[in-house]
Amino acid sequence: MKRAFLIPLLLLWVTGRSVAANTSSSAPATATPPSYSLAQCIQIALDHNPELQLASTQFLQAKGQVIQLHAILFPTLNAQGLSTPLVFYVQFQQLFYTHATFPQLRLSRLTEDQAFINYRQHLNDVVFQIHQAFLTMLAESEHIDLLRKAAEEKVKAVSSAQQLFQGGQIQKSVVANVQVQANLSQQNLATEELTYTQAKLLLDTLLGLSLPETAHFTGDLTAKLPENLDTGQLIAEALRDREDLKLLESKQLSAEEQIQIDMKNAYPIIGASSNSTVQPPALAFASDFNAEANYNEPTTVVMAGDTQLPLSLYATWIIYDGGNLRGVKMSDKANIASRDVALSELRQSITGEIGDAVSRILRERDSLKALDAEPSPDDLRRLAETAYEAGQLRQLDKINLENDILTQQLSRLNSEFQLSLAASTLDHALGHGLKITDSRPPQPDR
């Protein structure tokens, strides 16, 4: 009887084990959240950032301007046809010399260079903005982790305080105080999670692509500071490498060449032209009749065509135009003067950017040194636990100590974050934003 009773139980046990195994094997594995580094974010921006896409269209615009400027080297050919009788007029013109020839060729080279400098400047700005947003995401992630751990500890503290109250060891007011602190921790965590969401939306906008909500960002928040913080040397380096400064200087050269182009009519223009006339053969009625024909009908004859190909040299020179050229030159000079002001302002701005970034780096570095001199959180917790077991520290004192430790950790995190932002700002002020990525901006063809 016992054996007959055990056999069904064994069958049920084996069946249950197999069903459980099948259930566990069929359960989908938890997907690993996608991770993104700074270099990956920059690569995404190269393909999707709208500002970079708009800047890249200027390559085609610059190419069209180069073709237009080079057209001065080639002849022009126009044709016109008139009927009754059919006559074609063909006009050929070739310039041999004009004051605008070489300025237009130099301007074509500057125009192409400016398109690439402009793209690199936009790329430098976008990389800087993404770097700052990426650092914000790293800092917010660590901030949320700290607040989440603190909120979990506060929940445990509430449970411990209630047990101590039930044991008559603490008063009800202490339990209420702990409960209030736990609620505040939850509110702070919710606020920080909202800040994280807003920071991610900003990063998505810069990338031109929405990353998954579960995206995880990998990297080191601690900045690698430049070895040289001499403001004078950094300013000299920036004045040499800044793309926006190069762009303004190139446009200044373009404005000077444009004066030469606009003043071309103030100098002789020499060329060759031909107003050729081409009259093809035509059909016409004969003036007499064929008497031997059955019908007295007129006959047709082919009239010979006429072609003339005169070629002449010409020289034109506007001696007086009512002051038009003088007004054009004054307008161009004013344009150059305004660019001079812009160049001066940009140089002053670069000086201020570098000075501000260096001062921020020094300030945050000193702040981190001061935090390094304080006891570590682990040491503080160990001392507090020893004092609590010895009866020298109350439960509420331990909770307040955890608040102080959290404040210390947040202060360190904020100093590291601000130091990283300042280092990134200095890179951008120096025109070195592209050095943080392996991406190579396009270069003009030579």
Could you give a short description of this structure?
The protein is α+β, with helices and mostly antiparallel strands and 446 residues long. It has helices spanning 2-26, 38-48, 50-70, 101-166, 172-207, 231-241, 243-262, 324-372, 377-389, 395-430; strands at residues 35-36, 76-82, 87-97, 216-217, 269-279, 282-289, 298-303, 306-308, 312-316.
Instruction: Briefly note the CATH topology name.
Output: Outer membrane efflux proteins (OEP)
Order of helices and strands: HEHHEEHHEHHEEEEEHHH
Biggest beta sheet summary: 5 strands, antiparallel
Helix proportion of residues, in percent? 55-70%
Mean pLDDT: 81
Q: What is the structural class?
A: alpha+beta
Oligomer: single chain
Count of separate DSSP helical elements: 10
Which key phrases capture this entry?
446 residues, alpha+beta, Outer membrane efflux proteins (OEP), 5-stranded antiparallel sheet, two-stranded parallel ribbon, 9 strands, 65% helix, 12% strand, elongated, disordered N terminus
Task: Describe the 3D structure.
- With 446 residues, the protein is an alpha+beta fold.
- 65% of the residues lie in helices and 12% in strands.
- The chain has 10 helices and 9 strands.
- Helix 4 runs antiparallel to helix 5 (172-207) and helix 4 runs antiparallel to helix 10.
- The longest helix is centred in the N-terminal third of the chain and has 66 residues, at 101-166.
What's the layout of helices and strands?
Elements: H1 2-26, E1 35-36, H2 38-48, H3 50-70, E2 76-82, E3 87-97, H4 101-166, H5 172-207, E4 216-217, H6 231-241, H7 243-262, E5 269-279, E6 282-289, E7 298-303, E8 306-308, E9 312-316, H8 324-372, H9 377-389, H10 395-430
Parallel strand pairs: 1-4
Antiparallel strand pairs: 2-3, 3-5, 5-8, 5-9, 6-7
Helix pairs in contact: 2-4, 3-4, 4-5, 4-7, 4-10, 6-8, 7-8, 8-10, 9-10
